[in-house]
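[recover] target loaded
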């Protein structure tokens, strides 16, 4: 009796490239990002397991990726997703957490995995971490779990929870205040389904965004006139990285500047400079004074997630009151319930 070979259909993955270290080669002035051709050796190996289509979206060092590029990346993923099981987006590491957070909000209820990845060493380097990161990203993209993720160093995290914590180490990203969505072990890709975002409707592209948001790190003795300056410059939102649980210097006119900003219609979000744990303005007197003024608690969101959420909310045309209500709830896992 002859055995019948059972052929397993390969998952179809769309790779969108944007440049970054992973696609860089040495140039006259240092590493320069190039098109996807530099990835071809690694992609040939991955094609043993996946049916891969490559689309070069842009070719930039991630330091040069702006909100306009976030919009382009989100639109490209949304408009080209039909017929694919998942999407991998290669990106430079320096601003990947911002892009992954922004794209998370821009693709509500996305119906397939969208996975960002990159590397600390170019693929052209024999010791590059790029091949391993690509394998992890492709495995998550083929997993069938919808959402926007970031894959790095054999770990997968929600895009809106990722923070770059090392400039050169291979474990460059961590999932802050949330468990990893998946890990690679000797049993393969192990997904923690309790971390995954829950879909509540049909997938949509909502990539309008406002660039008039400023991220301000509070320092002792900061001149409160900075708030008047930001208002005069046309900023519509301010995210303040405050001390500890959300402490702000309310003496020396600091409170007055924030009060004027809120009265002028500027949405002010308070997060914490501490990488872990949550801003909680209800603990101390200074925090309660801020709540009385109408500031918004960022809770345990990362600064990247809070800033891009505020940019996205303003881009959707929400009012100051609607934005405050939006920050009370989690859209895609950026806040711990």
């Amino acid at each position: 009796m002859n055995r019948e070979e059972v052929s397993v259909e390969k998952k179809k993955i769309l790779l969108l490239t944007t440049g970054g270290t992973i696609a860089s080669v040495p140039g006259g002035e240092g590493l320069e990002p190039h098109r996807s051709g530099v990835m071809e050796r690694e992609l040939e190996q991955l094609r043993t397991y996946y049916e891969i289509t490559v689309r070069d979206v842009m070719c930039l060092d991630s330091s040069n990726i702006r909100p306009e590029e976030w919009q382009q990346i989100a639109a490209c993923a949304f408009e080209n997703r039909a017929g694919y099981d998942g999407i991998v987006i290669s990106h430079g590491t320096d601003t990947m957490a911002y892009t992954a957070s922004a794209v998370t909000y821009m693709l509500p209820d996305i119906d397939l995995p969208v996975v960002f990845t990159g590397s600390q060493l170019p693929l052209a380097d024999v010791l590059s971490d790029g091949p391993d990161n690509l394998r992890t990203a492709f495995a998550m993209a083929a997993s069938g779990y919808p959402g926007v993720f970031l894959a790095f160093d054999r770990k997968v995290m929600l895009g809106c929870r990722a923070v770059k914590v090392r400039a050169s180490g291979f474990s460059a990203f961590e999932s802050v205040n949330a468990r990893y969505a998946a890990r690679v072990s000797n049993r393969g890709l192990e997904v923690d389904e309790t971390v995954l975002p829950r879909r509540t409707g049909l997938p949509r592209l909502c990539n309008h965004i406002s660039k008039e948001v400023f991220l301000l790190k509070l320092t002792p003795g900061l001149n409160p006139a900075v708030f008047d300056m930001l208002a005069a410059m046309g900023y519509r939102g301010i995210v303040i990285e405050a001390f500890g649980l959300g402490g702000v210097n309310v003496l020396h006119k600091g409170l007055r500047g924030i009060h004027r900003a809120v009265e002028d219609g500027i949405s002010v979000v308070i997060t914490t400079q501490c990488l872990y744990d949550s801003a909680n303005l209800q603990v101390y007197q200074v925090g309660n004074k801020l709540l009385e003024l109408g500031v918004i608690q960022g809770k345990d969101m990362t600064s990247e997630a809070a800033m891009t959420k505020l940019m996205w909310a303003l881009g959707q045309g929400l009012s100051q009151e609607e934005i405050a209500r939006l920050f009370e709830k989690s859209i895609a896992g950026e806040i711990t319930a």
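[recover] notes: Confidence is low (pLDDT under 50) at residues 1-6.
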